[in-house]
Amino acid sequence: MAEAQQLISDLGKRARDAALTLAEAPADAKAQALETAADAVLTREAEILRANASDLEFGREKGLSEAMLDRLRLDGGRLSAIAMGLREVAAQPDPVGQVIAQWDRPSGLHIRRVRTPIGVIGVIYESRPNVTADAGALALKSGNAVILRGGSESLHSSAAIHACMAEGLRAAGLPEAAIQMVPTRDRAAVSAMLQAQGLIDVIIPRGGKGLVGLVQSEARVPVFAHLEGICHVYVDGAADLDKARRVVLNAKTRRTGICGAAECLLIDRAFLARHGDILLRDLIAAGVEVRAADELAGTAGTVPAAEGDFGHEFLDMIIAARPVDGIEAAIAHIRRFGSQHTEAILTEDQAKADRFFRALDSAILLHNASTQFADGGEFGMGAEIGIATGKMHARGPVGAEQLTSFKYLVSGDGTIRS
């Protein structure tokens, strides 16, 4: 543990020095670093994919599920998406120094509230090597230094992507310590990061229940809360059948290993009376294991649901399904079993959609759209560090703007207080 603490202390001290430089770095230098990093991701494709192949082999030996291996896997298309995300972040307005509000006081003071970097951010994540680029880009854009601790299974892939980020920093004349990676699989480094008061200003966990629970129980520094993605889709009695079939299938099957994947399907009995169990049959035909409750368990090919299947994040081709008596029953179920991440309602009744939006307090609520849109890139942020489900500071997709705090700039003219 002492060795891990020394490692994090060294990384933290370098990060704090880099953060001082980044706080004053010109917007064009940060943009240049990200553009160069994007170019490097594409030119180093073969190298990154070789590293990823090594990680995939390690993951299979560890017994990772196919959904978890999918989170880990890189290919040409995903590397192109990483490069595109870096360019989108580079092109965004620089948040540092933006005036959030300004006003004059009778005393003669002119007051401005402006965005300022947080300082040093620690990001702890599992499996997905693209987080290395996303987190590094957003931290840099917002003027923060970042210390990245990726999952043990993605060590080589993340290191290869980090090398691209470092190339960008060098090209722009920015300190390489602005984006650092913890170069070890030792889990003691995670605990050391969580206790690094005075070195790390905020921790952002991105991973499963085990990781988030560890962070919340051990952290001595502030945390942007990120709970499980127990995402619900409620199909109202007034839902359009074609829309419902398309959205439900996409919400579950597009990518099962992401936090925006639907984990529970709630179907209004009024919808069932009109359309039957077509949504369940669609899912079963697509290879999804449907764990069904009540009369839905009568659909051929379903598995009877256990109570523990509700409120569970499967991250796999599995979904829990339950019939409900209308929107109020759906709301009650989500309040009981949800994680305040993302929920969707499918309905053509605007009043029902409005009720759903008012009654639930999840970070993201959708009407007639797939939960798979719970993503900073889809929100126009270029990328995200994660989805924050807490209610303090950042909530929903965490992009560059959410990685800033603010300060007050107050101007007078020899002004004194009477």
Describe, in plain words, how this protein is organized in 3D.
- The chain has helices spanning 2-22, 27-43, 45-62, 66-72, 76-91, 130-141, 155-171, 188-194, 209-218, 241-253, 269-275, 278-285, 327-337, 350-359, and strands at 99-104, 110-117, 120-125, 145-149, 179-181, 202-206, 231-235, 262-268, 289-292, 303-304, 318-324, 342-346, 364-367, 387-388, 396-397, 404-411.
- The chain is α/β, with parallel strands linked by helices and 418 residues long.
- The strands form 4 sheets. Strands 10-9-11-8-7-12-13 form a 7-stranded parallel beta sheet, sandwiched between helices.
- Helix 2 runs antiparallel to helix 5 (76-91), helix 3 runs antiparallel to helix 7 (155-171) and helix 5 runs parallel beside helix 6.
Question: What attributes does this structure have?
Answer:
418 residues; alpha/beta; 4-stranded parallel sheet; 42% helix; 19% strand
